[in-house]
Structures are given as C-alpha cells and as structure tokens.
C-alpha cells in the first residue's frame, strides 16, 4: 500500500504537471521555449535555497532580479532541477509503461500461439526464443536504437535516394552545361526533408520504446507458454474443443481470463526493467536526446559535476533518488501482486 501511494504521488506530480512543464514561455531576447528547457545562464549551478551557498553563488543569486528560490538547485544552464525532474519523470514513466505494454502484448501472443499450436511449431518458436536469449541483451537494444536513428537521419537527408538518382542519370552527365553536376541536380530534385522538433522527438521516443519493448518479451513468452500448456489440460478446455469452439473465441473467453493474473504480475515487474534500460541508454547518450530530459539523462549530466574542486552533488543525487524510489516501489508492487495471485499460496 505504501508503494502504491508513492507511485500514485509520483504519477500525479510528473504526469499531472506536464501542461505546466511543457508550456512554452517567452524569453527576454524574443522567442519562446518549453519551461523545462528555459533558464538563465547567470543562474547556472546554483544550489537548493536551503543549502548554504558559497560567496560566489550567493553573489550570483543576489544579482538576479527578482531573486529566485530554487528548491532543488539549477543545472549548468540555469534551468530549474525541479522542473526538469518533473518533465523527465513523465518521460521515463511513459517510456517504461509503453515498452512494458509492447513486451506484454508480444510475449502473450507469442507464448500463447506456441503452446496452443504445440508440436513442431512450438519447438521451432521456442528455439527462436532460446537463440534470442543467447544474444547480448544490451547490445541488441543499442543496435536497434542506433539503427532507428540512422533510418530517421536517412529519411531527413535523403542521401541514399540522391545517390541512386545520380546513378540512374549517369548517362546524362556529358550533356550537362559547364559548371553543373549531377549531384547539384539531385539536390534540387530530392531536397532534404524537414521535421519539426516535436515530430523528431516523438520519433526518437517511439524508436526507443520499440527497441526496449521489442527485446523484453522473451521471459513473458516463456511464462505464458507454460501457463497455456497447463490450461490446455484442464477439463473446461477439453469441453471447449469438444463442442467446436473456434480458436479465437477459446483464447479470448477461456485462456485470456485465466492468464490475467500472470500477465498483470509480470507487466508490473517489466515496467521497472524498461525504465532502468531507458535510464541506462540515456546515460550512455543513445536514449532520450537533449534538451528533452529523463531521469537517466539528468543523471548522466550530473555525473560530470562531481569533482574535487566544487561538487554540484544535487545534479546527480535528486535524479538518482527519484529513479531509485520509483523502481523500488514498482518492484514491491510486483512482488506483492505475485504473492497475492499465486494459487499455491492460497
């Protein structure tokens, strides 16, 4: 119950504040930017107001009009850590939940199909799972994320399409006027595409959650396969087959309700795994792209602020603390659901 309360509070604070953290605010020099990316470089690396500042920090704080009160300090660009934590929490939770949903859907369908088909189909499908289990998990996620970025960059630049155009029109090169080239004509015929910042961000997040969710379904597939094999031997399944119930109706009306318990439990345990992977990829620089924040990205940025000369510890401690509390709460909820829905414990 405590873990559920903590998760509810974090969701309300992070997701509920999205209209405020994503709202665009005007800048002194003109233009606007999202609140989570807005800041004054003069207020860079200021500690929380309840921490005794150094003389330099106190002098810089007094020079800002009106004098601000940063509850959790500022980063190197003077952006409020509170605002970036709230926006980053919403992004981390969204990626974790969406990737877990993809993992649950793929794992449930794959495991159910393998167990229901049985025989050689089951053997081949589960050998594929065994092969995927043998691959380096993090390497596969990294390769998928990098491949997705490469495809998006190629879509924008269209370099491959222009190279194919030049090869196709190579016979026209001698007849071109002096000073012209096929490459220049290809650039006119196939100019680079433009993507708005919002569209590019949405594509990056979609590629990231597909990369994480597309490699997290293996355990779910094995668990669901075992459950379906157990259910197939039950009398009600034999009765359904005897009276000629179609396979789709058998799955939706008889198998799926009995699989709800394991699905809910493992989905709850998959969310923290997906969030941890997102944080790890963002920490490596191939996850959430700046200036969009996430808890992993914020931790990566804060790590460089720990030094013997002046340690700006708040830039690393607060993102890591939020991530740790959320992961612990999710794991506690998952373990509690597992115990509550385990028929052997009843």
* CATH architecture level-2 label of the largest domain: Orthogonal Bundle
CATH superfamily grouping of the largest domain: MetI-like
Which sequence of strands runs across the widest sheet?
Answer: 1-2
What form results from the Cα inertia axes? flat
- Any idea of the CATH class of the largest domain? Mainly Alpha
The helix fraction, in percent, is 55-70%
* CATH-assigned fold name of the largest domain: MetI-like fold
User: Could you say which structural class the secondary elements and strand pairing correspond to?
Assistant: mainly alpha
List keywords for this structure.
346 residues; mainly alpha; MetI-like fold; 3 domains; two-stranded antiparallel ribbon; 14 helices
Structural write-up:
- The protein has 346 residues and is an all-alpha fold.
- The protein has three domains: 2-24 and 33-38 and 79-158 and 193-345, MetI-like fold, CATH 1.10.3720.10; 39-78, no CATH class; 160-191, no CATH class.
- It has helices spanning 2-16, 18-21, 55-63, 81-117, 119-134, 137-157, 159-168, 182-189, 197-213, 218-232, 235-242, 247-284, 295-303, 314-341, and strands at 24-26, 32-34.
- Strand 1 and strand 2 (32-34) form a beta hairpin.
- Helix 4 (81-117) crosses helix 13 (295-303) and helix 6 packs antiparallel against helix 9 (197-213).
- The relative contact order is 0.13.
